[in-house]
């Protein structure tokens, strides 16, 4: 299931690649003042191809290797201490944000573009649940649906009321050192560990609590606080203790626990630049949390990480 989730995230790349082209005689990076049918049709065609391509690719590359069953649900709300659900929310938020931004770039009215982006994200992510629903080992997860919907609505609500994403979801990763014990589950190299090792992943809610709501604040709008969530010592999905018997007779015991973080961050989209291309670049990389010192609360104790990735 980890590989399938990794493939899902990688299908975002073709959409992001649209941002580095020139189109229709005017700067590609300049949003249309009114509905540009060529752009809207192009965006819709890419989104449709993305959707169909995902289904076809996953069905033949991934799902065909597993035994099929009748449609059934699967309760996975307890697995991985909900790290995968936070990942679903971030992915859905980002899909909605990209799709909505592309339609607004095409000249679609702002709130309508946000609604279309939200609908695309919810529908697109739900596709995978139906694919899982016919697999013996997994099933249709209402917890995944809830996380997907929450991420999409986080985008839509902010666009509808503020015309701005004041609260952004971000991601960071470091090598936890635990993948070596279960490389088939947690990854055998850096790219696979980035997508599969929840112990090295951290999900962040990044925001500026003052400048975002106070126009005359002297605090730069691009300096954010960031609340993070992660887990550690989790080698199996159900959250139980995992014991490794070593050759010398010793045992390695891993008991999973949650980690909460408070850190700083940079909102690249709030940095004042004139270049449209640079603005697009900043928007693209803004999903990654910038390393900063971080205060960590875990197992009832506080500690300071001098530089946390």
Features:
309 residues; alpha+beta; two-stranded antiparallel sheet; 8 strands; 18% strand; disordered N terminus
How would you concisely characterize the structure shown here?
By secondary structure, the chain is α+β, with helices and mostly antiparallel strands. It is 41% helix and 18% strand.
E-strand count: 8
Rounded radius of gyration (Å): 21 Å
Q: Mean pLDDT, as a whole number?
A: 89
Specify the structural class: alpha+beta
Rough outline? globular
Please give the domain count: 2
Low-confidence stretches: 1-26
Please provide the ordered H/E string of secondary-structure elements.
HHHHHHEHHEEEEEHEE
Helix content: 40-55%
Largest sheet: 6 strands, antiparallel
The amount of beta strand, in percent, is 15-25%
Count of helical regions: 9
Strand order of the largest sheet: 1-2-3-6-7-8
Distance between the termini: 25 Å
Write structural notes for this entry.
The protein has 309 residues and is of the alpha+beta class. 41% of the residues lie in helices and 18% in strands. It is built from nine helices and eight strands. A six-stranded antiparallel β-sheet has the order 1-2-3-6-7-8, with helices on one face. α3 (37-61) packs antiparallel against α4 (83-105), α3 (37-61) runs parallel beside α5 and α4 (83-105) packs across α6.
């Amino acid at each position: 299931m980890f590989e399938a989730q990794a493939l899902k995230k990688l299908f975002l790349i073709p959409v992001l690649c649209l941002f580095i082209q020139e189109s229709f005689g005017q700067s590609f990076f300049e949003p249309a003042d009114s509905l540009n049918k060529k752009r809207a049709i192009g965006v819709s065609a890419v989104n449709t191809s993305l959707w169909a391509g995902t289904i076809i690719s996953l069905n033949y590359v991934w799902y065909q290797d597993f035994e099929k069953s009748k449609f059934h649900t699967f309760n996975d709300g307890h697995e991985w201490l909900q790290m995968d659900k936070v990942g679903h929310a971030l992915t859905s938020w980002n899909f909605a944000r990209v799709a909505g931004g592309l339609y607004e770039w095409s000249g679609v009215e702002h709130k309508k573009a946000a609604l279309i982006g939200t609908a695309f994200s919810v529908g697109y992510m739900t596709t995978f649940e139906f694919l899982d629903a016919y697999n013996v080992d997994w099933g249709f997860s209402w917890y995944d649906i809830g996380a997907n919907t929450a991420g999409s609505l986080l985008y839509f609500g902010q666009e509808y009321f503020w015309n701005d994403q004041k609260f952004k979801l971000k991601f960071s990763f470091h090598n936890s050192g635990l993948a070596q014990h279960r490389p088939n589950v947690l990854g055998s190299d850096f790219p696979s560990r980035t997508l599969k090792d929840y112990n090295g992943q951290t999900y962040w809610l990044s925001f500026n609590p003052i400048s975002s709501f106070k126009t005359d604040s002297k605090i730069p709008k691009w300096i954010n606080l960031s609340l993070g969530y992660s887990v550690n010592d989790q080698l199996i999905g159900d959250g139980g203790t995992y014991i490794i018997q070593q050759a010398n007779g010793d045992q390695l015991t891993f008991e999973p626990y949650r980690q909460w973080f408070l850190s700083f961050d940079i909102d690249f989209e709030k940095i004042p630049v004139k270049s449209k291309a640079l603005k697009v670049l900043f928007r693209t990389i803004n999903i990654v949390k910038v390393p900063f010192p971080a205060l960590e609360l875990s197992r009832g104790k506080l500690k300071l990480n001098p530089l946390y990735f």
